[in-house]
TrEMBL record:
Organism (species): Terrilactibacillus laevilacticus
Subunit structure: Homodimer.
Protein family: Belongs to the class-II pyridoxal-phosphate-dependent aminotransferase family. Histidinol-phosphate aminotransferase subfamily.
Entries under PANTHER family matching the protein: HISTIDINOL-PHOSPHATE AMINOTRANSFERASE, HISTIDINOL-PHOSPHATE AMINOTRANSFERASE 2
Name used for this protein in its record: Histidinol-phosphate aminotransferase
Short name of one Pfam family: Aminotran_1_2
PTM-bearing positions, type N6-(pyridoxal phosphate)lysine: 210
UniProt xrefs under CDD domains: AAT_like (cd00609)
Pathway this chain belongs to: Amino-acid biosynthesis; L-histidine biosynthesis; L-histidine from 5-phospho-alpha-D-ribose 1-diphosphate: step 7/9
Enzyme class: transferase
InterPro entries from the UniProt entry: Aminotransferase_I/II_large, HisP_aminotrans, HistidinolP_aminotransfase, PyrdxlP-dep_Trfase, PyrdxlP-dep_Trfase_major, PyrdxlP-dep_Trfase_small
Keyword DNA damage on entry: no
Statement: the UniProt record of this protein carries the keyword Signal: no
Length: 353
């Protein structure tokens, strides 16, 4: 609190990011970062871009990167907006497409930033409870609303949604924008990018932070019909025209071009996820079926918050949400095989099996 804050700042309820600890080296399974390095071609592209051109502003329209994205998605550059991480793209989308007079819909258990953005934009939120298995109740999203945001797969549960379910939501909401947040789609879910040309109300948001191992350079993007993209550009150019720096542009382009490398990495992560799931199941955990690079787990006899602190003492960081319905769950990012072995060994010591 400060007398220098205006009323709007007083009213904010900011997001709390996962810890990036500096006190010691942890096995870091708390923020869904990719445990493998970026493609060597990405690192080379960033090194090559570190030259005297850095004195110049970057391209405000990110033309080169958008052309590359257009090529791999089968869309045109007019269908693409690039932002400083997909969090920025999501924030800009809330500001551009949703209005205080019509409620925005999202699930009760989902990416917690949506609530923060709704609050930031003074929007009413119509919060839809997931069912008992944390599945999306599709019909509830087919009632009147002023916009929808759904991650596929959902976070922090890891559950995916079928293309046909999303189609149903899109068909029922032709007058409002439906955002599908595909931050984790490449770890086993099905993308709805092919529906963009069919649905002018669909905005797909993706990020290079998870699949492309580039959380450190902050690049995300939106794919959608050119009217939506124009709206995002109007907003961006009213705040900051140069949101993506030269190094990030170079790295992002190289990442999009080297999908073969990242497919291999994702395959490894999926295999590790399956192995870890099997072992945790044998240890008595219930695991929500995951199509993401993390798992959401609970144990019938061990309290999740206690497990969280016990793991932290042993140098293993996972994510705990003290929130209704999920306060006995842990979200565990999938690390390397070696890291997951350390996690499993620590769990075994804590639960004494
Ligand atoms: C990580 C994450 C994002 C944000 O990604 P950035 O591009 O790093 O800002 C967006 N949505 C969901 C569901 C996420 O988990």
């Amino acid at each position: 609190m400060s007398k220098y804050w205006n009323e709007r700042i007083h009213k904010l309820e900011p997001y709390i990011p996962g810890e990036q600890p500096k006190d010691k080296r942890y096995v870091k399974l708390n923020t869904n970062e990719n445990p493998y390095p970026p493609s060597p071609k990405v690192l080379q592209a960033i090194r090559n871009a570190a030259d005297d051109q850095l004195r110049l502003y970057p391209d405000p329209n990110t033309d080169d990167l958008r052309a590359t994205l257009a090529e791999v998605t089968g869309l045109t550059s007019e269908h693409i907006f690039v932002g400083n991480g997909s969090d920025e793209v999501l924030a800009f989308s809330f500001m551009s497409f949703f209005s205080p007079d019509r409620p925005v819909m999202f699930a009760d258990i989902t990416y917690s930033f949506y609530k923060v953005y709704a609050n930031l934009c003074s929007l009413e939120a119509n919060i839809i409870p997931l069912d008992d298995e944390f599945k999306i109740p599709v019909d509830a999203f087919c009632k009147p609303n002023g916009g929808i945001v759904i991650p596929n797969p959902n976070a922090p549960t890891g559950r995916d949604i079928s293309l046909s379910s999303i189609r149903k939501v899109l068909d029922a909401n032709l007058d409002s924008v439906v955002i599908i947040d595909e931050a984790y789609v490449n770890f086993g879910a099905e993308s709805v990018v092919p529906l963009i040309k069919e649905y002018p109300n669909l905005l797909v948001v993706q990020t290079l932070s998870k699949y492309s191992s580039l959380a450190g350079i902050r690049v995300g993007f939106a794919l959608g019909n050119p009217e939506l993209i124009d709206g995002l550009n109007r907003l961006k150019n009213s705040i900051n025209s140069y949101t993506i720096d030269r190094l990030a542009l170079a790295g992002a382009k190289a990442a999009i071009e080297d999908d073969a490398y990242y497919q291999q990495v994702a395959d490894k992560i999926i295999t590790t996820r399956q192995k870890t799931t099997k072992i945790l199941h044998e240890l008595g955990f219930n695991i929500v079926p995951s199509h993401a690079n993390f798992i959401f787990i609970t144990h019938p006899s061990f309290n999740a918050e206690t497990l969280f602190y016990n793991l932290k003492e042993k140098g293993i960081l996972v994510r705990y949400f003290n929130q209704a319905r999920i306060s006995n769950y842990l979200r565990v990012s999938i690390g390397t095989d070696e890291e997951m072995n350390q996690f499993v060994e620590a769990i075994k010591e804590i639960i004494k099996v």
